[in-house]
């Protein structure tokens, strides 16, 4: 259907509770010029109980072996966080860059080993056909309800520069979601719209 009475495809995005939530909050960027810039894709499926796309990193990688992560990685020169997150998701799990509806950026996070990461929130179709590459040992798709039902543990750590950060752990089906990934998950679960 086309013409003046056709529904505007942006109407669905504007009514999406995640888009509304994201539009109503103030994003907290970081200013860490000495850190390496990176981006991750926080992809939520379009269904009543959204699933979140996570990966188990390969044991053959030089860093973060076997850890649970969002698809993502270092930004290339001239790339925006959105471009980097979409490129990395395509490279790691075969998520075609045209599929995610990017809603915006979440609060920046950092890792103790020197990465400044921008999480990019997007919605993706409920039925995904993903193909992990050698970087990814497994694809995980827990629902937000499953993650909310977990007994989360937390601890305060002080970084070498004196900054205190709260670290979270989400034990899900034999997997340990922790570190930067758990901080982003915690933000979604505690500050998100549902």
TrEMBL record:
Domain Nudix hydrolase per the UniProt entry, residue ranges:
35-164
Please give the name of this protein. DNA mismatch repair protein MutT
The similarity comment for this entry is: Belongs to the Nudix hydrolase family.
* Xref: CDD domains: NUDIX_CoAse_Nudt7 (cd03426)
SUPFAM superfamilies reported in the protein's UniProt record: Nudix (SSF55811)
Name the cofactor(s) required for activity, per the record: Mg(2+); Mn(2+)
Pfam (any one)? NUDIX
Residues that span the membrane, as ranges = none
The record's InterPro entries line, in alphabetical order, gives: CoAse, Nudix_hydrolase, NUDIX_hydrolase-like_dom_sf, NUDIX_hydrolase_CS, NUDIX_hydrolase_dom
A GO molecular-function descriptor = metal ion binding
């Amino acid at each position: 259907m086309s013409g003046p009475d056709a529904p505007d495809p942006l109407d669905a995005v504007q009514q999406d509770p995640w888009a509304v939530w994201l539009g109503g909050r103030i994003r907290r960027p970081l200013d860490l010029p000495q850190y390496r810039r990176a981006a991750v894709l926080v992809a939520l499926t379009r269904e009543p109980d959204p699933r979140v796309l996570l990966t188990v990193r390969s044991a053959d990688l030089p860093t973060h072996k076997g850890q649970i992560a969002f698809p993502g990685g270092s930004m290339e020169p001239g790339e925006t966080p959105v471009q980097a997150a979409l490129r990395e998701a395509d490279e790691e799990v075969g998520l075609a860059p045209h599929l995610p509806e990017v809603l915006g950026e979440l609060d920046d996070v950092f890792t103790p080993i020197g990465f400044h990461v921008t999480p990019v929130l997007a919605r993706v179709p409920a039925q995904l056909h993903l193909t992990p590459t050698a970087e990814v040992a497994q694809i995980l798709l827990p629902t937000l309800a499953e993650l909310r039902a977990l007994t989360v543990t937390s601890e305060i750590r002080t970084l070498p520069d004196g900054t205190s950060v709260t670290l979270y752990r989400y034990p899900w089906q034999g997997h340990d979601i922790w570190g930067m990934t758990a901080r982003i998950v915690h933000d979604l679960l505690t500050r998100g719209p549902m």
